[in-house]
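Fold this complex.
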Amino acid sequence: MKAILVVGDGMADRPIRELAMKTPLQVANTPSLDKLARNGICGIMDPISPGVPAGSDTAHLAIFGYDPYKYYFGRGPFEALGAGLEVAPGDVAFRCNFATVNEDMIVLDRRAGRKIESADTLAEALNCIKLNSFPDILVNFKHTTEHRCALVLRGPGLSSKISDSDPNQNDILMLPIKPLDDTREAAHTANIANELTSIFCKILDGHPLNEIKRIKGAKVTNAILLRGAGILSKEIKTLNERYGISAAVIGVNALVLGVCKAVGMQHIKVEGATGTVDTDVKAKAKKAVEAIDRFDFVYVHVKGTDNPSHDGDCEQKIQCIEKVDDLVGHLLDNIDSRESLIAVTADHSTPVKLREHSGDPVPLAIIGEGVRTDNVSQFSEIDCSYGGLGRIKGIDLIPILVDLMGKSKKYGS
Amino acid sequence: MKAILVVGDGMADRPIRELAMKTPLQVANTPSLDKLARNGICGIMDPISPGVPAGSDTAHLAIFGYDPYKYYFGRGPFEALGAGLEVAPGDVAFRCNFATVNEDMIVLDRRAGRKIESADTLAEALNCIKLNSFPDILVNFKHTTEHRCALVLRGPGLSSKISDSDPNQNDILMLPIKPLDDTREAAHTANIANELTSIFCKILDGHPLNEIKRIKGAKVTNAILLRGAGILSKEIKTLNERYGISAAVIGVNALVLGVCKAVGMQHIKVEGATGTVDTDVKAKAKKAVEAIDRFDFVYVHVKGTDNPSHDGDCEQKIQCIEKVDDLVGHLLDNIDSRESLIAVTADHSTPVKLREHSGDPVPLAIIGEGVRTDNVSQFSEIDCSYGGLGRIKGIDLIPILVDLMGKSKKYGS
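Structure:
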């Protein structure tokens, strides 16, 4: 038995007055999700634990069976892994933004307009640069999507205990990076990060692409904001090592891909998958159906549901949920339930009224041979709470799926 | 308030196509279990944790309130305790099989035909033997049921980190026992176990009972297979020490009895209790009714439901479930609900289609004075999931019962 897990990022919500106190999941037209709920087993799941809002990174760690309190040491390394950079033990990695600053280093736009022209070329100019004061530090820098980049520092005596340069809002000064503890390593790494930031700014400022922008009167991309410094947990055993299952991921979000790679999933690229509302869910579903022939476990991540939640855009969230429904519909039509389970959930709730992740549990449904079916007939936050799975934790999901796949190991005799 | 806990071993299951996607519990005629569900509180229980298949030993430890990850160091000591052998700290104990091997030590029958004639006499010939190379090692050997025996080694410097000689299938060589770590103790114990195995074979081979079998042309019982080497956790406080409750067990399975003895239960023998499908459940129920006068907690174990599950025999499983129902019916008729709780559950799921333990939760129902009753009216894997207990873990069961018994201790003021 195999398994496909579909996650609608931030898909779960709270009742909304404008929707007559229903949630987007309840209002959206979701015949396939409801079919899955009706013919499968449902429940609700606390990604980390009740009332604790999970990030996409910590939620994914938990959902893949890795206690985030044990395996999470900052966002940076997952972002970097997802971007395709190598992250080794001892490396310190960052999530970065292309940004626009003025001559006083006041951040005019934390995202430099979000759509960065020739971002890869700009990033290339920053990759592998040498620092005069720190000649033994290797710098790896890479652009991912829009304004987003990743940075990995490699060298002796580094620490992730340093603050961000990203002020997290516009029109204030870029922050100097400071050590967050009293160790020599933290002070050393803060110094490196500050020198690097100033060199990055110099290189970008003098880059021909920015010269052209200035002539055009366009917004320049003349700074890099660093945040989420982190290291990788030393001993992340892969899903294969833990459960003897080969695994692949279909998705584009760098942070989530990073977590997937860290647990040993192979990335399957899909033409038309964008990580936004216009993503081609049918293409993703088709790839998943293909991939389940080659892998025991295929993880399909749909980022689109989270962005409108953060933007407070209820209507677009409903549209994205309906796209998740389309995706699941294609799976239901093309997957033999005697050969593969299909599970659908969210990595966390992102209530549109909150525009941020909340600690509410998320709905979960599993269908396939061997599953005990319950009476739930709708896939929603409340309906699923009446389901036969009860209320579980994110960390229990993979053990449950692995057991239904017939790959669990008995403890005792 | 007192409590009787009835466990149908491996009683829980998954939906079965031949039963119109119902489980054996749903199909069996169980008026008494359903009455208990209707008038009591129901829930589902993960013996260890969601998706983790429990052994009967680890499940029983958990259900009695002992974290199996803390208290389980191999099956052997529980098997030996259950057989009536003494197991002290430092002893290494094994589960053993009478077996039939040929002159090349190829295992012809791991169970020597299962029904061993004069097994007690054969076992007696192996008990208390002395090893020439290891004069300070005491050997205790005892027959339990059918082909099953238990062995306890006592002496200085022993370790349980050794492999089995049981190859776990017929027609291949008996395995040499090997140390599983680099310690002197493991190497020493492996040497002892190998010498013992060869002496056991010699004694059995020359035993007059086997001479007779050879003359008759019957299958000889000429080898002992060792497995499940283990030690006892040093500090198992009894249920009485933990909760101030006196406890007794009614059952015959050596492994389960061993766990019961380890947590301080007194064994009540019942004429007609066999551990198989033909067990006299009425006799067990009568003994339980008698015993609850003398003990605070009476545990009734019915092994019969697990064997047909492992054999894939759905019909016999249903019959055995109906026997559990008879047992519970007798309890309901003869126990005053103001004086004693009755709780029924399974130690783990053993889906007949899987023929092995699975990690699915098991149904649970509790009846008696003080219990909050819910809307569940059928005792089944799914119906109980809608119950007022929600989804609990095995380790929570005894604290819940002890609290309903009025014997719990407040934490805080």
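The CA atoms of residues 9 and 379 of chain B lie 15 Å apart.
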